[in-house]
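anyone seen this seq b4? input:
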Amino acid sequence: MANGADGIAVRDIAGSWQRLGVNGAGFEAASAVSLTAPGVYPDYVPRAAVLGALAAALLAVGCGVRRRTFFIGSVLAWTAVWSFYEIRNELFIPFNPFALGLGLVLVPVAGFFMIHGATLGRARFRTWAVGLATGVLCFYSIMTPFYAWSAHLLDYYALASGLAIGLGIATASAGAFAVIELDASGSPSPSAPAAP
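predicted toks r here
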């Protein structure tokens, strides 16, 4: 006998295997999931992709703003989003009031720090545009390996996880470097000394 998340496989005395799926009445062959059915990744994967994308977008914008208060606000904003995800993520408590309270307190504080930092840093429109594009691309770069695994294009879940981490880091790094390069190319060059 072998078990899995969607049922069991039983071998009879003749040596043939039969897959039995789980339903309310127990195990039945009619409830077995098709071998060609898409793989189902855990619920935390899209949450992790959103948090990774948010971190990548804030990092890219922060590289253009270059103010400590913006980075402090970014960390607080990321923590607020994480805490909102944790409201209904408890194993034994269906509702976590501490996570809700933390998120509600952090949102205005993060907003204040980020607006203050962005105002002092005089962030350009292209900085915000690259930050937004980095966040969207980072989300899909993290999720694409899991989409491929679900569609049986990748054999191993661990491979999808490794690719998601690698692609997410590469996308976040590319966004940060793009903002730094755009700022370097767009900044005024020092004036040449006048000829005698």
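The mean pLDDT is 84. Helices lie at 44-65, 68-85, 97-121, 125-150, 157-186. kinda curious what u guys think
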